[in-house]
Amino acid sequence: MSRPHAWVELRAWALMAVPMGMLSGGVTGVLVNTVYADVISTWALGLAVAVVTGAGPLANLFSVLWSHWSQGRDKIALLTRMQAAYGLCIAVCADAPLNSLGLLVLVGGLLGAQILWCGIITVRGSVWRANYSRGARTLFAARNQIFVSVCVSLTGATAGLMLDIKLETFRWLFIVASLFAFGSLSMLRRVKVRRQRQLLNAEQQLANGQTFRPREFLAILREDALFRTYMIWMMVFGSGNLMTTALLILVMTNHLNMPGLSQVMITAAVPTLLMAFTTPFWGRVLASRHVIAFRAINSRVFVGAMLAFFSGATLAFPPLLWLGAVLLGMAMGGGLLGWNLGHNDFASQARVTEYLGLHVTLTGIRGLLAPLIGVGLYSVLERAQPGAGVWALALPLILTSSGSLGFNWLKRNVALRESASLD
To answer: Quick check: 296 and 403 in contact, CB under 8 A?
Structure first.
C-alpha cells in the first residue's frame, strides 16, 4: 500500500509548500517591517520582526510536548485537525488591521501557525516510519524536500514582488496560502497508516505512567561531556545564524532602502533554493565523518556568509549581500542535515529520542532569544548614533566565527583523545 499512498502524500505536502513559503522567516519579517512601517513605533516594529523571523526555530520548544501528546492517538485524525488549525491561523493573518492591535493579531497568527507546523512534522514522522521502509523513507523525504524547497523559494519571491507592487496584497497572499493548506488537508484525509492499531497499542504501553520530565535533559548534559560541549558550541554558533535575518531586514530597509523583492530574495528565496541543491553534496560529506568534523567544515561556509553580510552592510554595497545569500544557502544545505542527524553520533539507539528532544529544545531557546538580542543591540546602536545600527551585524559574525573555531577545537581534541586511546 505504500506506493499509492506515497503519491497522495507527495501531492499533499507539495501543496503545503505555498503556506510554508509565506511563513518563512525572511518573508514574514519583510512583510511585517514593510506593511507596518508607518503605523508602529520603530522599537515595537523591530521587536515584531525579531519574533516572526525566529518563530520557526522558537516553535521547536513544543516538539517534545507534541510528541508526548500524540502517543496513542490516531495519526491522520491528529494531522488533519492540526492542519485545519494551521490554515485558520494563516487566514486570521489576512484580516489583521493596520494598527497596533493588527500587528499583535498578525504576530500571534504567525507564531501559532509555526507552533502547529512543528506538531504537524512531529506527527508526520510517525506516519512515515509506519508506512515506508528506511530506504523508501529517505528517497521520499529527499524528493519531497527538493520540490518543496523550490516551491518555497518561488512563493517567497512572488510575495516580495507583490509587496513591492501594492502593500495591501499581503491579505490575498495569506488567503491563497490558507487555501493551499486546506487543499493539502483534503488530500491527507485519504492517507492510511499501516498497522496503526498495533502502533497505537505499542505507544500506549510505552507511554503508560510516563510524563514529560525536563530533568532528563539535564541528566544528558551532566553525563555526556562530549555532547554537552558540542551543544555549547551549537548554542554559540546557532545564535549567530538565527539573529541574522531580522538584522538584515532592518538594515536593508532602514539603511540601504532596498525593495521588498530584493530583501525576500536575499533572506529567504535564494538560500532556500540553494539549500535544496547542495544537500546531496553535504550528505556525502557527513556520511564519511563524525558530525563534529562535519560541523568544523560546514561552519566555515556560514562564517563566509556572515562576513559577506557584514561587509555588504557596513560598506553599503548590496552585491555582497547577494553573495552572502548564496553562501548561506550553500551552508544551510549541510546545516539542516547536521541538525537532523547529528545527535545520532552521540546517542545510543535506546536514547536517540532523548538526545533529539534536547537538541530541538535548545534550538527553540535560541529561536526565542537570539533575534531579540540582535534587534536589541541594533536599537541601542541606533539610539546612540543614527546609522550605527549596521554594526549590529558584527555580533552574528563574531558568534558564528567563535562557534566555528569551537567546532574545529573540539574536532582536534577528539582526534587527540582517540589517538591517545589507541596508543
So the answer is: no
C-alpha distances (whole Å) from 29 to each of 10, 33, 134, 244, 416 are 29, 6, 37, 11, 44
Q: How many CB atoms lie within 10 A of CB 418?
A: 11
* Model confidence pLDDT, tens digit, residues 140-157: 666 667 777 788 888 888
Topology of the domain comprising 213-423:
Growth Hormone; Chain: A; (1.20.1250)
Contact between 163 and 34 (Cβ < 8 Å): yes
For the whole model, what pTM was predicted?
0.86
Measured CA distances, 83 to 39, 178, 379 (Å): 32, 10, 37
What's the half-sphere exposure (Cβ side, CA atoms, 13 Å) at 50? Answer: 21
d(CA 263, CA 219): 43
Domain 1-212 adopts which CATH fold? Growth Hormone; Chain: A; (1.20.1250)
Cα distances (Å, whole numbers) of residue 278 to 254, 273, 275, 377:
32, 9, 5, 33
